[in-house]
Amino acid sequence: MKAFPINQNDAGQRLDRFVKKVAPSLPGGLLQRYIRIKRIKVNGKRAENNTILSPGDLVELYINDEFFPPEETSPLAFLAAKRELNIVYEDENLLLADKEPGLVVHEDESGERDTLIGRIQRYLYEKGEYDPAAENSFSPALCNRIDRNTGGIVIAAKNAATLRVVNELIRERLIEKYYLCVVFGHPVPKEATLKNFLLKDEREKLVSVFDQPRPGARTAMTKYRVAAENDRFSLLEVELLTGRTHQIRAQMAYAGYPLLGDTKYGTAALNRGTGWRFQALYAYRIRFNAGERAEHLSYLNGRAFQVKQVPFTDIFPAF
């Protein structure tokens, strides 16, 4: 038997979802059965699948050890990540990090251990704000993600309540996200909203763009404004009105203005000799516009946060 005292970060979850986190190898059907026959209890009593846990509750699991993570599994795997972290803003609930191009946000199929979330967890652990041994089901987590080769602001939640609220605000488009990018050519008009339909190929990790709806395609809306120009390139400020995979890269290329450094939606020939290893795209600014939906984050309403330096803006001396 293992017992789990419910803390603030565990509270608010359904019992079955909590159990899946602490006993990830327990099959769903067996989980339901164990709740029904009282091998999973809350405060010593029978509970339901959808029982909402509160701080101070005690969850008791009378199940085999094989369903729990191995004891030798290190909860400090994030110590393999580097310490380098560029913090745009931080308070007791969240942290805004400026991710460098080339850094993955989470461990991917490559097995890379130096990730943005690893760096954030290491930082919070070393400053005493995160203790894995004191947590049952929560660890600091990212609320949004950006591509490996894109730089810019990523939001990390320090507690479960913040993770829940920020995820909801992002879904409801109540956190405004602005990008800067460099494109080949000079867009006409200088300011517009692109509306297309994007179809993602999961195997090829590539997005196709269409003018008309088709099965499986999702609406994508991107607002852009030309901020500066030179003889070959334009610097655009872009606001995402929807959040689709590779949205800016795919839509701008489809419009005839591929991003500098982007060989997936542009071409290698076009980029030859430019010296750019990554696409010139940066999530440089966010603004909280959540009103009452912000809940305990209401102090952020109306506030905007911006990175100090975007690597490619020096191409445009007048900017």
In short:
The chain has helices spanning 15-22, 28-36, 116-126, 160-171, 247-254, 268-271, and strands spanning 2-5, 40-42, 45-46, 58-61, 87-90, 94-99, 141-142, 151-157, 175-184, 191-201, 206-210, 218-229, 233-240, 281-288, 304-306.
How would you describe the overall organization of this protein?
This protein is of the alpha+beta class. It has three domains: 2-67, Structural Genomics Hypothetical 15.5 Kd Protein In mrcA-pckA Intergenic Region, Chain A, CATH 3.10.290.10; 77-171, Pseudouridine synthase (2-Layer Sandwich); 178-283, 2-Layer Sandwich (Pseudouridine synthase), CATH 3.30.2350.10. Helix content is 16%, strand content 28%. It has helices at 15-22, 28-36, 116-126, 160-171, 247-254, 268-271, and strands spanning 2-5, 40-42, 45-46, 58-61, 87-90, 94-99, 141-142, 151-157, 175-184, 191-201, 206-210, 218-229, 233-240, 281-288, 304-306. The strands form two sheets. Strands 5, 6, 7, 8, 9, 10, 11, 12, 13, 14 and 15 form an eleven-stranded mixed sheet that branches. A four-stranded antiparallel sheet has the order 1-4-2-3. It is elongated. The model has no long low-confidence stretch (mean pLDDT 93).
How many domains make up the 3D coordinates?
A: 3
CATH class of the largest domain: Alpha Beta
List unreliable stretches of 5+ residues: none
Number of strands: 15
What is the name of the CATH architecture of the largest domain? 2-Layer Sandwich
Tell me the distance between the termini: 63 Å
Largest sheet: 11 strands, mixed
**Shape annotation:** elongated
Q: What is the quaternary state of this protein?
A: single chain
CATH topology grouping of the largest domain: Pseudouridine synthase
Average pLDDT, all residues: 93
Structural category is: alpha+beta
> What string gives the helices and strands in order?
EHHEEEEEHEEHEEEEEHHEE
Helix proportion of residues, in percent?
10-25%
Relative strand content: 25-35%
Helix segment count?
A: 6
Q: What is the CA-atom radius of gyration, in angstroms? A: 23 Å
Query: Quick one: CATH superfamily of the largest domain?
Result: Pseudouridine synthase
